[in-house]
Structure formats: C-alpha cells, structure tokens
Amino acid sequence: MFERVNRELLVYSPKTGESHALNEPAAIVFEHCEEPASRGTMVAEIARRCGLPSDEAIVDLALADLTEAGLVQADDGAALQAVTRRALVRRLALTVIAAAALPVVETVIMPTVAAAAPVKLPVCA
C-alpha cells in the first residue's frame, strides 16, 4: 500500500508492520521497479525531475536502500555498485542542497493496536 504526499511516497508493508517514507529520487526508482524499466530510464527521470546529475550510482544507492528496507528484491543478474552517500557526494561534487536530494528511505516501525492505545495520564491539580 502506498500514497503520495507532496514530493514523498509513503509505503506501508502489512507483512512487516513498517512504514517507509521515500523522498522523490527513491520514489522514482521504486515506481520504476513496478514496471520494467532500465537503470538508464531511472537515471534520466531522476535527472529530469530532481535536477541531480545523470549517474547510475544514484540509482544504485536508491536500490540498495529500497532492498535493505525490504521494499524491492534485488535482481540476481544486476550487481549494485557498493557506494556510500558520502563517496557519491564527493565524486559528483554535489552542493549541500544537491546532496540533500539524494535518495532517502526512512523506516518507521508502526506500533501494534495494543501498544498504540491511549495511556491514561495522572491528573495534576
């Protein structure tokens, strides 16, 4: 289950009970995983919509984050480049603003219904 809110995509996995917030570049990669799309297509779409440089390492960073979050499965035939966010910022000479636009997948564990029940707080007079 997913829903777009502003420039983020919120994805809920009932299997794990986790919610994930994907920023625009990560959402682009996630959406393109739903349909057959090449990495080149993903790179071009990220560059067009987010203004990031055309580089497959950005897609690999998003795929690694999405795979780690359990939102996509890595294709056995597709080897992801082992790239860190810091190394990518340096290699592409990104500004602070551009670095903030790199793919991000944030995971939030949703509480169970019992845990989410309201807690009765003491009344102070």
Q: Describe it for me?
A:
The protein has 125 residues and is of the alpha+beta class. The chain has one domain (2-116). Helices cover 42% and strands 16% of the residues. The protein contains six helices and four strands. A four-stranded antiparallel sheet has the order 1-2-3-4. A hairpin with a 4-residue loop joins strand 2 (8-13) and strand 3 (18-22). The chain is globular, with a radius of gyration of 18 Å.
Short description:
The protein has 125 residues and is of the alpha+beta class. 42% of the residues lie in helices and 16% in strands.
Cα distance, first to last residue?
45 Å
Q: What share of residues are in beta strands? A: 15-25%
Low-confidence stretches: none
Count of discrete alpha- or pi-helical segments spanning 4 or more residues: 6
Topology:
Elements: E1 2-5, E2 8-13, E3 18-22, H1 24-34, H2 39-50, H3 56-68, H4 85-92, H5 96-100, E4 105-109, H6 113-116
Antiparallel strand pairs: 1-2, 2-3, 3-4
Helix pairs in contact: 1-2, 1-3
Note the main attributes of this structure.
alpha+beta; 4 strands; globular
